[in-house]
Amino acid sequence: MRPTFAFLITPFLLAGCLSSNAFAGGSAVPLPTQVREYSHDGLRFVSLEPVDVGQMPTLQGSVSLYVGALYVGPAEAPGGEHTLALVLRSVNADGYPILTGGSDLLLEVDGTYVASNPRAGGHTYEVESSKGGVTETVMVPLDPAMMSVVAEADVVRGRLGPWFSFVLPPSHRSALTGILDRIPSGARYHLSAPTANFTASE
Fold first, then answer.
1. Can you give the pTM of this predicted structure?
2. Cβ–Cβ under 8 Å, residues 33 and 49
3. What's the CA gap between 146 and 190, in Å, rounded?
4. For residue range 31-68, what is the model confidence (pLDDT) as tens digits?
5. Does 27 have pLDDT greater than 80?
6. In which domain, by residue range, is 155 found?
7. Is residue 154 in some structural domain?
8. Residue 13 falls inside a structural domain
């Protein structure tokens, strides 16, 4: 199922849900990152491996949160639909998923509110188990301009389902730009709603 984006104008939706320790930062030195490129079945993949944001308290214990990015597009033909996604990954060492009961994502990017509702079974929400615990991945389709906005914003806060809130530090978000010089800039990117209110010019 494709995620639905909504641009919200009511800040009270985050009130009482987001972490109270707001993180304002602006530009920051990007963290070291690993970018992997590979092709499969006629598609080209560019993955900025998620970097560790830290431990986040939840309604059911705590999880480790990571942020990264993923691009998927045609390996040869310049046309077609391309996808660039912000990747949020949580790892629960206790061995059970916490987002299956609600993986809705709400982001605040310098006062602009973006909502997405990834669902299990699609490409935007995945669950897998490993020795380190249960990993849940939520992907939010953006375009290069929107990714730059997230990377360069003063404050980016969010909430995943009813379970936990988080702040993405500037140094982690600045690392997201490491994928932009490896992907097509003039391609048509898959988005689920108009993006006129979420551009680099604002």
1. 0.79
2. yes
3. 12
4. 778 899 999 998 999 999 999 999 999 887 889 999 99
5. no
6. 6-183
7. yes
8. yes
